[in-house]
Design a protein that fits this description.
Layout: H1 4-15, H2 17-25, H3 27-31, H4 38-46, H5 49-55, H6 59-67, H7 75-82
Helix pairs in contact: 1-2, 1-6, 6-7
Length: about 90
């Protein structure tokens, strides 16, 4: 499984306000353009940042979803959910 597409969604959400609006209005439709695995898509739609992080997504990029308040996320919710993730030592 590659998380490149998840990181791309998160980065684009942060940098492209129009895409962030579309993601907020109709998340499933907005995500169709990305080559996501079913597990990745489901986790994004659920705002499950801990699962996305466990899959290898970058926590800073995932925070962009919360900053734009999409996928049921805001900064306090992101903070609560990411704290449940197992630490990754991939450096």
């Amino acid at each position: 499984m590659s998380v490149y597409a998840v990181n791309l969604v998160a980065r684009r959400t942060l940098r492209d306000p129009d895409f962030a609006r579309r993601l907020g209005d109709d998340p499933a439709l907005a995500l169709e353009q990305f080559d996501l695995e079913e597990e990745e898509r489901d986790a994004l739609l659920a705002g499950d940042v801990a699962a996305l992080y466990a899959m290898g997504a970058h926590e800073y990029l995932l925070m962009g979803l919360a900053r734009r308040e999409v996928l049921g996320l805001d900064l306090p919710t992101y903070s609560d959910r990411i704290r449940t993730a197992e630490p990754r030592l991939d450096y």
